[in-house]
Amino acid sequence: MKITVIHGQGHKGITYTMTKNVLDSLVGLNDEVFEFFLPKDGPKFCIGCNTCFLKGEEYCPEADKVQPIMKSMEESEIIILDSPNYVMEMSGNMKNLMDHFTYRWITHRPHAKMFTKVGLTISSSAGAPPSNTVKSMAKQLKWMGVPKVYKFPFISNALNISKISTKKEEELKQKAQKIASKVKRRANNPKANLKGKIMFYIFRKMQLSPDTAWNPKDRNWWIEQGWIENARPWK
User: Fold this and answer.
1) What is residue 159's predicted lDDT score, i.e. its pLDDT?
2) Residue 71: which domain range?
3) What are the helix (H) ranges across 62-165?
4) Predicted TM-score of the model (pTM)
5) Which terminal residue of the chain, N or C, has fewer Cβ atoms less than 10 Å from its own Cβ?
6) Conformational region of residue 56, where left means phi above 0, alpha means psi within -120 to 50, and beta covers everything else
7) β-bridge mates for residue 152, sequence order
8) Is the per-residue pLDDT at 223 higher than 70?
9) 41 Cβ contact list (under 8 Å, min separation 6)
């Protein structure tokens, strides 16, 4: 099994520790983990040139940074996004990467493999609820077709990992083990869900008509996948 982890920050603090605890319970002997740390491994800011939409993702000015991460996601069974809770949202580094991934939304050119993957979003906060942050990151994966995204928010009551109490540290470990178990069960039984299929059919209908399919690059992708006919991105 392959797992892609994208860290929305470069430092190894509480959110990183949460992810590490999940991986400790999740990763088996023959599993592979591919980690990317932002901003070091990520692209510069998206400039809104629309090149990925109209010409192709390989022509993006930041393709050399964007594509290795996307390819890793496409080849993995599990995708993990983590970010500390920054002003009730994901980090700017993570948001910027998601901006570069928009061409893979169901509205444009979704990859077939995304429809049977498992996602997990992780975020910590010293006090303010990080629930919006994990939901926001999960939304990004769902719009790429990922049918099931688990969420792991955690209020640490500490500003950094050295200040976390023993009680909170134990709570973190227990929650990490529990969520890892859920992710592993789902990864061993990959399947598309009803909501994802409904979204697929909505945007398939849009691609059926040249009058409503505004982008020939997107429409040609759907035709090449056979989705305009009888093929579907799930078994």
Assistant:
1) 84
2) 2-192
3) 63-75, 92-100, 131-143
4) 0.95
5) C
6) left
7) 122
8) yes
9) 65, 69
